[in-house]
Structures are given as C-alpha cells and as structure tokens.
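Working notes for the structural subgroup meeting. M.R. asked for a predicted model of this chain before we commit to crystallization trials. I am recording the input and output together here so anyone reviewing the notebook later can reproduce the run.

Input as submitted:
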Amino acid sequence: MLVSDIAMPQQDGYWLIEQVRALAPASGGETPAIALTAYVRAEERIKVLAAGFQLYVTKPVEPGELYAALAHVVRTREELG
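Returned structure, recorded in token form:
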C-alpha cells in the first residue's frame, strides 16, 4: 500500500505514481495507492485518479478516515481478485 502526498518538494505525487505504475506487476507496479492532498477541486480528484491512484483523501485527514480509506482499497483489491 502506498499513501503519498501530491505536493512534495522536488518530485510530486504524480511523478511518484508514474514511477510505480511503470514497474512490472511482480515488482510492485500494481501496488494499491492513495493520494493524500490539500487540493479539493473536482479537477484535481479526476487528475489524481487518472494518474493511477485508487483513492483520493483530502487533508487534514482524521486517523479513522485514513484507516477507512486504507481498508476500502484493500477490500476492493480483494474483491477484484
């Protein structure tokens, strides 16, 4: 599981997920990923999901909300097989 902020110094979360998705599946290319961001516009959400993240969580995030997001991604991955 990868949880990454979108706005990071030097390389952002979009760069990071691009690097992960370029990997072969056996090397982690299909690692479930959640974007953590302060950006709340619909355009940002679309961009995050199109980049390869499974879920979008806005900051500030409560620990319970983050846990629920992690559980949702894991559950969805299990259901898809």
